[in-house]
Peptidase S8
Amino acid sequence: MGSRLRVLAAAAAATAGLASVAGAATAAPATANGRTMHSCATSTAGTAHCLAVLRTDVHASNSALRKAAATPSGYGPADLQSAYQLPSSSAGGGQTVAIVDAYDAPTAEQDLAVYRTQYGLPACTTANGCFRKVDQNGGTSYPRKDGGWAQEISLDLDMVSAVCPNCHILLVEAKSSSFANLGAAVNRAATMGANVISNSYGGSDASDANYGSYYNHPGIAVTVSSGDSGYGVEYPASSHYVTAVGGTSLTKASNSRGWTETAWNGAGSGCSTYNTALSGQSAAGTGCAKRAVADVSAVADPNTGVAVYDSTAYQGYSGWMVFGGTSVAAPVIGAVYGLAGNAASIDNNYPYAHASALYDVTGGSNGSCPTSQWCTARTGWDGPTGLGTPNGVGAF
């Protein structure tokens, strides 16, 4: 993807003397191999970390890209719309997809404009009513800036734009990465009229008895990343009230679809210790006594990652970058819910009754586990990819 841009990026990196990430206080993703890093530090009890995984070998400034008349590396809107057979040009009007993240991305709106301009998407601004940014109280007293979470925010905004360019976007910034503050931001998004709320973060498996009130919003689709460390469950993906979104490796192919997918080896999966299973999971053969993760999935492998623009530098990286992680998959699925426009009348069991409208992912694994379907893709439900990936909007 984008060999000309790789040359530019390498030259730019050498000139700028980009900082080494070897000592960065970040979690190592399952696909590390020296070319990826997490955008957010690991979480502690009661807090969450974002689930964006940055490719450190592919990046360039917007000015360098424009000067070279190059296309950003990584999949763009046309790729995602093709891979998942989405009616992006005609659907999504009147829908609002909320993005909930921690801390402030001070240039979120400007960076969003660069992304949408690059790909010929309609403008989404505060001025035209498409974009709105608030703090967790619904005001403009934004939290402190954090470069890693700013990357996450840009990733989320860009993925909603790529999949549902007609959707309105509401960004709600929590004042910290605690479950309490992130949950308050989710509640704020719900009160502000969001049809869909996307959450690209996670922490240790936890109980809905403690945090479920933040995610229990009937009539609103709530999507959550499943995790980036392979087999193992994170919260709030393990909540009974959300759509847990796993991850795949997505590559172009010479088949009738034009694409092929396997389970990404970093996708989180497994069984919650605390929370009850969805009713739709009873016939899916999950093998879990309680809530099974994931429900559905989308691209998440940074090696088959997506193009993102962010100007807030983190560990020396900014500009056009390539990201993976289930932080990609959660807003992609959130935006598909926006395209479908059905959130008011369905719940998170809906995909289980409409699995025929998904691409079943049957290859790949995210590790070893006590029961094979918790970590190995197969026909039907499996942990890393759930029921599969969108084939249109029929499962949403």
Remarks:
- The first helix runs from residue 3 to 16.
- The two ends are 30 Å apart (CA to CA).
- Residues 3-390 form a domain with the Rossmann fold fold (CATH 3.40.50.200).
